[in-house]
Amino acid sequence: MAAVLVIEDDDRIRLSLVMALEDEGYTVTGAATAEEGLEAQRSRRADTVLVDLMLPGIDGFECIRQIRRTDDAPIVVISARNDTHDIVAALEAGADDYLVKPVAVKELTARLRALRRRARTGPETLRLLRFGDLEIEPDAGEVRLRDTPVQLTRTEFQLLCELAEHAGKVLSRQQLLQRVWQYDSGDERLVDVHVGRLRQKIEDDASAPQHLLTVRGLGYKLHR
């Protein structure tokens, strides 16, 4: 059964999340601080991590960054902060998704199931996909820019593969949410921030991209 780590300093919220997820069949570990959560993830890696942003000591943003240095487990932020700046900052730190408190258990478990499906399925092609000096091997989980390996998170890699499999075709933000995150609906900022992160890694100049292009009013496409 999938394991979930809940990093939340509010005892009432943490306990309610732990109990609700255990009722859904998950194995759940709770941590009241980022420090406790980081130690728990190092010692017994969870499949998914839920993180609050307003934590004592190390805050949620830094907690996410520290997890991301060594771990590609999906990270979902659960926070009362709904400001666009906070959402974008959390996603740029390495989070895969962002839910605003109070969180409905059904919505949370639906998101967790979608994350698990993504982890199980992944790209199916064995082909080497080339876009000029950018090479993508979906089955091997490898990306190279001018023969230099590019380190991507799981979500960034799956987003890049989805665009690569539809090279030259414009995919809307909602299509990408459905295909990459497997959400029927959701916040389109998830897509925009991850596209921005991808450009920082696969473009010589992220402000003037040559590979991952924006088609105004429509969405994104990967250009050969």
UniProtKB/TrEMBL annotation:
PROSITE patterns: OMPR_PHOB (PS51755), RESPONSE_REGULATORY (PS50110). Keywords: DNA-binding, Phosphoprotein, Transcription, Transcription regulation, Two-component regulatory system. One of its GO terms (cellular component) is protein-DNA complex. CDD domains: REC_OmpR, trans_reg_C. Residues 126-224 bind DNA. SUPFAM superfamilies: CheY-like. GO terms for biological process: regulation of DNA-templated transcription. The keyword Transcription applies. InterPro entries: CheY-like_superfamily, OmpR/PhoB-type_DNA-bd, Sig_transdc_resp-reg_receiver, WalR-like, WH-like_DNA-bd_sf. The modification 4-aspartylphosphate is found at D52. Residues 126-224 form the OmpR/PhoB-type domain. Residues 3-116 form the Response regulatory domain. GO terms for molecular function: phosphorelay response regulator activity; transcription cis-regulatory region binding. PANTHER family: DNA-BINDING DUAL MASTER TRANSCRIPTIONAL REGULATOR RPAA, REGULATOR OF RPOS. This is DNA-binding response regulator. The gene is regX.
